[in-house]
Amino acid sequence: MSAAVVSHIIEQHAEEAAFLWVLRSYAVHAPHYRLKDLAKLDNRVEAHLDGLRIAGAEGWELCAQALEIGEAGEVFAAGLLALESKDPQKLVKVLGVAETSPEACKGLISALGWTEPAKLSGTVKQWLASASDFHKFIGISACSIHRVDPGKILDDLIQDADAPVPLRARALRAAGELKRRDLIHGLRACFLSKDAPVRFWAAWSVVMLGNRNEALEALKTFIVTGAKQFPKALPILLRALPVDQAGALLKGLAQYPERQRDLVAGTGMIGDPFYVPWLIKQMETPELARLAGESFSFITGADIAYEDLDADKPENFESGPTENPEDENVQLDSDEDLPWPDPVKIQSWWSARQHRFQNSARYLLGAPISEARCRNILHEGFQRQRSAAALELALMNPDERLFETRAPGWRQQGQLQADS
């Protein structure tokens, strides 16, 4: 085989590893991916990464050149090789690109999550001890992703009002993910911070650690004000609040037309069958239909596509980018992979089964929320359902660390098998 052919193959490995990472970054939040599907995709990513490993110096050089693009997928591939090599010069090159933008940084953080913890320990220890705030940020991110306690640095950063906001916020978030209950006093002191990310992640973590009073009130302010943190505040609030209070929060959202999608999604987060008739009604509105179907499934456990409860896409309905070059809408359709529900079929399905459900109770995929139910969903559910189950489990038990549903599929499968 000629050198030119070999180089072309290595280049393909680099391109495919970056491209498949982009697909994967969507798949971890996709409504139609199960863990087994994610594991298959991850095996494809790993096959191309293995090709780059085998290529040695040439594999690295191609990835290093691709770093100039500054895209997250390219940073992921180069970051993975650099982390596994522990070569300081390679790490400096990747860190330099990752620090240039939040998007590029996502690629490096994903590479940290992909790399086996044993291959990270010395590198991460150096980052945590570094004078660089960015290095500390990456180090804490690595520890949090692998659910490894970085130690005293969390306490120091949580108390340091002069620390950069992104770094301090990441430390606050890690305290909740890692269930550092010893830090709860310092977390609560951050409720008065002038910086919204600091206030938010402090309140989020305190709720994760078992506080159901002032921290929930602090999170409500992000809902009332429509702050940037709204999308992250809503799920934990609606799952941690008593059903009646969560319902009152949704009732407040109903006053704002721009919050209709949040309202529809929120009913599924609460899990109260009381909302099912209203959800079926929303299925008649094309812009809300698929999201309403997903919330219906979150409550009832119905698989709309599998149980033939779906319908054809409405005629003349368009969402997301079009082929019109003058159309300024370039946003992808967030409901793209959800089935279109048939309201008539679903009403019939519900009429035959609603006697099994009790209003003002909370359900997840057709069963009352329980530890056993959530663990089953981690094994069998779709990714969005698995994320919900992981959050429910962490809220149930103040000592249980939040399960990472974005980890490589084979690692998740191993963890679940070990826990069962």
UniProtKB/TrEMBL annotation:
SUPFAM superfamilies: ARM repeat. Residues 312-337 are annotated as: Disordered. It comes from the Bacteria. Residues 324-337 have a biased composition (Acidic residues). InterPro entries: ARM-like, ARM-type_fold, CHP02270. This is TIGR02270 family protein. It comes from Methylomonas rapida.
